[in-house]
């Protein structure tokens, strides 16, 4: 079913007809909600007086923690996040009070009349301080295989170092937004831009002190999410629900961009250390790693993210002796959260740095060191956490991409260019990705669906997944049509709705299509079996001499027929009318849970992933050594998505993921001042990639003839893994800097490689080179 069809909302996205939360038509009762948040990173609230604010005309509610009817809590996993602060605040952007008024201006006026007195307290604003003070969010985790210390002691070569990787702002185009409309009694209808409608529902119910069945959360689509709405959409939804409950009026909160950037968490910054042992050929013998993440003020998903980082420090490489310790630290910043890759990028950056350094130490091409260390087939094929790697596609992709990208030839051309140019240098790098597909919290790997067929032969599919631009609903529509054997136009995918499919997992971990697609197939199979049984009975009653067997009935091309008696056939709509007359239910629920996975988190051992996704990228860059300006000259990507359900959408995900990763690796720098104020809270200070930053020559291909036996219609998840292909751009930049010193001294390097990092790194290198040469000359004399 490899068919490119446009995203189901492509036209609506372009014409502006697509309805986002902010576009939902509401009556004149609608109130605007506003969140009043802490300007201090850590402070005691000595006084909070809302009385003057409540008197402002047009203001319908001004609320603080005392006005919460249920639990003052919105932590998703650990209950450590207050909905509204009580007596202390622990980060700038933490909600203290809520305002609902008829206009935005009235909200601002009310906010000016809120009296709050703070007593500032000591803060922790960076990882170094958090580590020095042992400000842990929870106990450290460890995964270990082999005898690392002995292997390091006996290894011919050992390198060690530190790597910093930066935070990243999600920059979804649609900021956090929620509209709540009260129904009768305790009923509440919630229109939220959330990746996790069920969790949003459950948290609102707890907050309001009502039962889950009173709250319905609906998600038509998000204007982008990227992990930033896996847990933190809940916050805006909880605040809107409180104001709606208090006023009885519809309330909408839509965060301004700057507020959104200030209040919400980001990708976790990491400060990691490593020690690696290897032989003369560059074969890795042992690695001892420590990953430290900045969790921010609360736990959120920090432990799951740290765990995924620990499960991806091997990336594509077999390391016989490996130990990794992970620690998440508490700081006075907004709680950091899920972001495409979910710790994977932070873990992989460490091992890719290691490989790059090993290659530079041995004066070999890093591409050779990578190939040498890839997981093997039948040998060297077990990860540090004990999962055996099946259907390994690393060498297939490597061979194909090295050829199609003309890597060897271009490496020579890059070297020749660098001989001739002093202040502009080129660099090239190939990096692989092996990414585990499944939620590492195993029970989350489940999904549900509700499929309704109507008498005109149209089908309405409900499933637990949410659409954030990734094309999930398009793929689900394709899956439902193909599994039924009917045309695409008969199938519509409904807005996600907790009253249709309950208790779902977040649409995350790249597993949206795998899980929900399989649940939809399950429902379709149930319906098809029902139709076949009823039609077999019907046709047999008409032709008792030659009965129809239900297993001979198939649906294809919108027709249901008895393959043994081809004259017995009905169009799909006619068949549905008949089914209704025969009192056959035209609606079914489906369910899916990922089979054969499970692991012991405490021991760090087992099979957390159903399968792996693979890809590789070759990136060539041009760097201006004097200014740090860099251009992606060419990128070649070969990515494995199994039998693609929709190559157009999959290539879009690969391109988008790579470019989003390039942003993290190069220009996106999140900075706070020494009080904990976010300095980069708008697009003029925070630089996401634009169309100008796309590689001049961008060649993306999907690996052909590689069906995946482990997912729906032999497809493979695509969403997150391509982001990590951007490490090739990062290491290509390092390669170019290194060329500034003829690859004789190794550059100091961190992530992101901003212009500043590039210039400083090149400057330092050139100084070291001059010093080395003068020492050398002195000795010669
Ligand atoms: N693509 C678009 N256009 N917008 C998004 O917000 N989120 C990414 C990825 N691709 C995202 C996206 C993330 S973080 C995940 S986990 C997946 O989409 C979720 O969807 P899926 O599992 O259905 O692929
Ligand atoms: N990925 C994304 N989201 C998650 C995960 C994961 O592995 N586990 C819990 N939430
Ligand atoms: Mo994606 S970070 O798993 O929402």
Structure description:
Helices cover 31% and strands 24% of the residues. With 781 residues, the chain is α+β, with helices and mostly antiparallel strands. Strands 3-5-1-12-9-10-11-20 form an eight-stranded mixed sheet, with helices on both faces. Strands 7-15-14-13-8 form a five-stranded mixed sheet, with helices on both faces. Strand 21 (553-556) and strand 22 form a beta hairpin. Helix 9 runs parallel beside helix 10 (344-362), helix 10 crosses helix 11 and helix 14 (472-484) runs parallel beside helix 15 (512-542). The longest helix has 31 residues, at 512-542. The radius of gyration is 28 Å and the shape is globular.
Q: Helical proportion?
A: 25-40%
What is the overall silhouette? globular
Low-confidence stretches: none
> How are strands sequenced across the largest beta sheet?
3-5-1-12-9-10-11-20
Question: Compute the gyration radius: what is it?
Answer: 28 Å
Helix count? 19
Q: What small ligands are held by the chains?
A: ligand MTE, hypoxanthine, dioxothiomolybdenum(VI) ion
**How is the biggest beta sheet arranged?**
8 strands, mixed
- What percentage of the residues does DSSP assign to strands (E)? 15-25%
Mean pLDDT: 97
Q: Output the structural class.
A: alpha+beta
The counted number of beta strands is: 29
Distance from N terminus to C terminus (CA atoms, Å) equals 73 Å
Set down the secondary structure blueprint:
Elements: H1 10-15, E1 31-37, E2 43-49, H2 51-54, E3 59-63, E4 88-89, E5 95-101, H3 104-112, E6 115-120, H4 127-132, E7 141-145, H5 148-154, E8 157-165, E9 177-182, E10 188-192, H6 197-208, E11 215-219, H7 233-247, E12 251-254, H8 257-263, E13 270-278, E14 284-296, H9 302-310, E15 321-330, H10 344-362, H11 366-373, H12 394-404, H13 407-420, E16 424-437, E17 446-453, E18 459-463, H14 472-484, E19 491-493, E20 496-497, H15 512-542, E21 553-556, E22 559-562, E23 565-571, H16 572-581, E24 587-593, E25 598-600, E26 605-607, E27 611-624, E28 630-639, H17 647-665, E29 697-702, H18 727-739, H19 755-780
Parallel strand pairs: 1-12, 10-11, 14-15, 18-19, 28-29
Antiparallel strand pairs: 1-5, 2-4, 2-6, 3-5, 7-15, 8-13, 9-10, 9-12, 11-20, 13-14, 16-27, 17-18, 17-24, 21-22, 22-23, 25-26, 27-28
This protein binds ligand MTE, hypoxanthine and dioxothiomolybdenum(VI) ion.
């Amino acid at each position: 079913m490899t068919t490119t069809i446009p995203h189901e909302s492509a036209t609506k996205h372009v014409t502006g007809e697509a309805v986002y939360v902010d576009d939902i038509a509401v009556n004149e009762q609608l109130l605007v909600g506003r969140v009043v948040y802490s300007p201090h990173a850590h402070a005691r609230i000595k006084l909070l007086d809302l009385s003057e604010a409540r008197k402002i005309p047009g203001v319908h509610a001004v609320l603080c923690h005392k006005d919460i009817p249920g639990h003052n809590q919105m932590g998703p996993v650990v209950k450590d996040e207050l909905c509204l602060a009580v007596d202390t605040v622990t980060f700038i952007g933490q909600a203290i009070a809520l305002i609902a008024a008829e206009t935005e201006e009235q909200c601002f006026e009310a906010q000016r009349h809120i009296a709050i007195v703070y007593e500032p307290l000591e803060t922790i604003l960076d990882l170094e301080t958090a580590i020095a003070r042992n400000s842990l969010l929870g106990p450290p985790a460890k995964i270990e295989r082999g005898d690392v210390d002995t292997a390091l002691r006996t290894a011919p070569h050992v390198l060690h170092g530190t790597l910093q990787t930066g935070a990243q702002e999600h920059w979804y185009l649609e900021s956090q937004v929620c509209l709540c409309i009260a129904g009768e009694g305790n009923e509440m209808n919630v229109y939220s831009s959330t990746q996790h409608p069920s969790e949003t529902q459950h948290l609102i119910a707890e907050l309001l002190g009502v039962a889950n069945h009173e709250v319905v959360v609906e998600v038509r689509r998000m204007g982008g999410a990227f992990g930033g709405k896996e847990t933190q959409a809940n916050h805006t939804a909880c605040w809107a629900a409180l104001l709606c409950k208090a006023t009885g009026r519809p309330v909408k909160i839509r965060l301004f961009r700057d507020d959104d950037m200030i209040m919400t968490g980001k990708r976790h910054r990491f400060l990691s250390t490593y020690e690696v042992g290897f032989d003369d050929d560059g074969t890795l013998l042992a690695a001892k790693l420590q990953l430290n993440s900045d969790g921010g003020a609360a736990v959120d998903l920090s432990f799951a993210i740290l765990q995924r980082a620990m499960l991806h420090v091997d990336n594509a490489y077999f390391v016989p002796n490996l130990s990794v310790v992970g620690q998440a630290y508490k700081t006075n910043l907004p709680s950091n959260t899920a972001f495409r890759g979910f710790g994977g990028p932070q873990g992989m950056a460490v091992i890719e740095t290691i490989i790059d350094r090993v290659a530079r130490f041995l004066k070999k091409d890093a591409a050779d060191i990578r190939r040498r260390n890839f997981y093997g087939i039948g040998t060297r094929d077990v990860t540090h956490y004990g999962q055996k790697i099946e259907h390994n596609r690393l060498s297939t992709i490597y061979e194909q991409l090295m050829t199609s990208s003309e890597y060897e030839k271009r490496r020579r051309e890059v070297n020749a260019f660098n001989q001739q140019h002093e202040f502009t240098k080129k660099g090239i790098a190939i990096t692989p990705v092996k990414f585990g597909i499944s939620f590492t919290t195993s029970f989350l790997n489940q999904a549900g669906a509700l499929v309704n067929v109507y008498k005109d032969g149209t089908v309405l599919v409900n499933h637990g997944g949410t659409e954030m631009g990734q094309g999930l609903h398009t793929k689900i529509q394709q899956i439902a049509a193909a599994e039924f054997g009917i045309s695409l136009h008969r199938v519509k995918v409904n807005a996600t709705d907790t009253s249709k499919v309950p208790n779902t997992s977040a649409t995350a971990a790249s597993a949206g299509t795998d899980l929900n697609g399989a649940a939809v197939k399950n429902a379709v199979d149930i319906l098809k079996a029902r139709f076949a049984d009823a039609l077999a009975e019907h046709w047999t009653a008409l032709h008792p001499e030659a009965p129809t067997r239900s297993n001979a009935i198939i649906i294809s091309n919108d027709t249901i027929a008895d393959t043994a008696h081809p004259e017995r056939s009905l169009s799909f709509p006619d068949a549905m009318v008949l089914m209704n007359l025969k009192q056959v239910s035209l609606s079914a629920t489906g369910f899916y849970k990922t089979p054969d996975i499970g692991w012991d988190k405490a021991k760090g051992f087992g099979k957390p992933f159903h399968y792996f996704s693979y890809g590789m990228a070759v990136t060539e860059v041009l760097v201006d050594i004097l200014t740090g300006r860099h251009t992606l000259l060419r990128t070649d990507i070969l990515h494995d998505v199994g039998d693609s359900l929709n190559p157009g959408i999959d290539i879009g995900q690969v391109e988008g993921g790579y470019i989003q990763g390039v942003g993290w690796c190069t220009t996106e720098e999140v900075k706070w001042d020494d009080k904990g104020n976010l300095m980069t809270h708008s697009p003029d200070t925070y630089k996401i990639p634009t169309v100008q930053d796309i590689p001049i020559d961008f060649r993306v291909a999907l690996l052909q003839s590689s069906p995946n036996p482990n997912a729906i219609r032999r497809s493979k998840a695509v969403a997150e893994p391509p982001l990590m292909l951007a490490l090739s751009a990062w290491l290509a930049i390092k390669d170019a800097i290194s060329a500034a010193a003829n690859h004789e001294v190794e550059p100091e390097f961190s992530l992101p490689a901003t212009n500043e990092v590039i210039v400083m790194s090149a400057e330092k290198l050139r100084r070291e080179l001059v010093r080395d040469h003068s020492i050398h000359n002195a000795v010669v004399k």
